[in-house]
Give the backbone structure.
Amino acid sequence: MKKNKTPLLELTTQERKELRKNKILISEIYKLTNNEICLIMNVSENRAKEIKALSEFQSLPSIGPKFAKDLLMLGYYSLNEIRDKDGARLFDDLEHLYGERIDPCVEDQFRFVIYCANNSYCGNQWWDFTEERKHYRNTYGYSKERPK
C-alpha cells in the first residue's frame, strides 16, 4: 500500500540524533509502534503518537505534511481510524474547524486516504477521486453551515 517516501517531519535535533544512533530511516518510522518510537527517540507517548501519525499519512502517495497535520487537527492518528469515515463529512469538518472555505481538492485527498485505509494496494493519487467528489457534490451539495 505505501511507498518508502521520506515524510517531512518537524523533528528536533535530538530526535534526529536518536534515529541515526538507532539506524532508523525517517521513511521507516510509520512501521514502528508508538512504544518503539518512545524508546528509540526518547519522547513522550503523545509525541510518539503524533510522529507516527504524520509519518503514516505521508507514506501515502501524494499526501504531504500540511494534509497530514489537518488529519491530526481532526483527531485522527492512524489510517485505521479513518477506514469507516466519509470524505465529504471530513471535508465539512475541516472547513468548520478552520472557519473558512477550503479548496475542494482537499475533499479528494480525504476520499483518497479513506480508499488507501481500506485497500492493500494504493497506487492511485488523490486527484483520481475528483470526479467522485464532483458527482457527490452535484447530487448533495455542501453543508448549509459552510463558512462564507
The chain is about 55% helix and 0% strand. Residues 45-58 form the longest helix (14 residues).
